[in-house]
Amino acid sequence: MQKNYGVKFLSFSGALPSKVVKNTDLEKLFDTTDEWIYTRTGIKERRVVDNGESGLSLSLQTAKDSLNKAKIDPKAIDLIIVSTATPDKLYPSMSCMLQGLLGASNAACFDLSAACSGFIFGIATASQFIYTGQYKNILLVGVDIHSRFLDWNERSVAVLFGDGAGSVVMSSCMAKDDELMGFILRSESDTKLDLTLDNENVTFSQFKNQISPNFVKMNGKAIYQFALRVVPEITNQILDKVNLSIDQIDCLVLHQANQRIIDAVSERLNIPKSKVLSNIQNVGNTSAASIPLAIVDGIKSKRIKSPCKMLLIGFGAGLTWGASIIDCNIN
Ligand code: UT7
Predict the structure, then answer these.
(1) Are 163 and 184 in a shared domain?
(2) What residues make up the domain containing 244?
(3) In terms of domains, do 141 and 10 share one?
(4) Is the CB of 223 under 6 A from ligand 1?
(5) Contact 101/74 with Cβ under 8 angstroms?
(6) Is residue 308 annotated as a catalytic residue, yes or no?
(7) Do residues 161 and 215 make contact, with C-beta atoms less than 8 angstroms apart?
(8) Is 116 a catalytic residue?
(9) Ligand 1 touching residue 217 (CB < 6 A)
(10) Do 313 and 252 contact (CB within 8 A), yes or no?
């Protein structure tokens, strides 16, 4: 592709709700143990929205932080993309609501739905507007509030998810300074409905019936196997595409779905554990926010050192999966 401009990643940020739910709190809700959850998933605790917090309030917090760090005035933002599968409202979009709170009056806004791959799909989408010269500054937010859509009696799903938001400002630079080395996006229709969140329970003729709650439904084993199939495959494809070998990658940031998936994939890829980021223990699976939150954690813990070639990989409902390699001076 002919690139007229390059992409710079200016500032990763994240925001988490204040309420912590520990595994031991879940022991009081249903038949589970801290030990089962930790050994099967690597999760110890997660955050959930409470006391007026929402997807929008977390998005605002992380977006403001990204803009401040990037020293970008909200009015200089040309486009806001919010990747989410659990918006506060079906409409208006999260991005339009965020625009108003930020005062980003010159931005076009839309939400993007690719579930846990949302941040990777967002990076790819934003980059096209920058490469063509259409837009200069783009705010990308990944946010999901799964706690509203979990059946808190269904132990195999409820233990996995946490709420959160993460963001980055992507700006144009000279083509030779492009920090996005490449990306691949993939989809495969989930015909067996292994991972779903319905929104179609009430029809015209049923409207008098009680609305049944819409909860996440998941065939955990199928999704686990899907991840172990596609992640190593897409890693090899993206490394080929950008002409790098796995040992030239400084940092692997895999969607934080389950520590066992992270460990199994790292082993198959033969990448040392020291290069693999993980924050799932404290936040659980935060879906579209998981990759930026893991990056922010890696920056804080100094596991990401600048400059850094990062391999980012998302996978999730759809089914969707995607990878990108960015080579950036992180801040
Ligand atoms: O963002 C992408 C979305 N999701 C994922 O990536 C999830 C991928 N899948 C997974 O992470 C795993 O499949 C789970 C963590 C969801 C489940 O782990 P598993 O090793 O596949 O467990 P399982 O479903 O095979 O269940 C094993 C046993 C069952 O009992 P029996 O039939 O052996 O008696 C379950 O009923 O563990 C039981 N079980 C639990 N026990 C205690 C299931 N959930 C729990 C629980 N506490 N929370």
Answers:
(1) no
(2) 180-328
(3) yes
(4) yes
(5) no
(6) no
(7) no
(8) yes
(9) no
(10) yes
Question: 278-282: long-range contacts (C-beta < 8 A, 24 or more apart)?
Answer: 278/42, 280/41, 280/42, 280/43, 280/256, 281/42, 281/43, 281/44, 281/45, 282/44, 282/45, 282/46
Q: Say yes or no: CB of residue 320 within 6 Å of ligand 1.
A: no
pLDDT (tens digit per residue) in 110-139: 999 999 999 999 999 999 999 999 999 999
Q: How many residues does the chain have?
A: 331
Cα of 161 from ligand 1 centre, angstroms: 13
106 has catalytic annotation: no
Q: Quick check: pTM over 0.90? A: yes
Task: Point out the domain boundary residue: 177, 210, 241.
Answer: 177
Average pLDDT over residues 271-285: 97
In the predicted structure, residue 211 carries a pLDDT above the cut 70: no
The protein residue with its alpha carbon nearest to ligand 1, atom 47, reads 32
Tell whether 239 and 260 lie within a shared domain. yes
Asked if 319 and 227 touch (Cβ cutoff 8 Å), the reply is no
Domain identity same for 305 and 185: yes
Number of domains in the chain: 2
Q: 82-118 burial string, b = 16+ CB within 10 Å, else e?
A: bbbbbbbeeeebbbbbbbeebebeebbbebbbbbbbb
- Written as six digits, the tokens of 219 are 């065939």
Does one domain contain both 52 and 92? yes
Is the separation of the CB atoms in 246 and 266 below 8 Å? no
Tell me, using a 6 A CB cutoff, whether residue 248 lines ligand 1.
Answer: no
The answer, yes or no, to whether any atom of ligand 1 lies below 6 A from the CB of 156, is yes
Give the integer Cα–Cα distance in Å for 314 and 18: 25
Q: Is the pLDDT score of 253 beyond 90?
A: yes
Residues 116, 251, 308, 328: which is the catalytic one? 116
Query: Whole-angstrom Cα distance, residue 80 to residue 96?
Result: 8
In a domain, residue 1? The reply is no
41, 156, 286, 319, best to mutate for ligand 1 pocket (most atoms within 8 Å of CB)? 156
108 and 221 assigned to the same domain: no
Shared domain check, 223 and 106: no
Task: Name which residue sits closest to atom 28 of ligand 1, judged by CA.
Answer: 156
Nearest alpha carbon, ligand 1 atom 29: 156
Structure tokens at 267: 């082993």
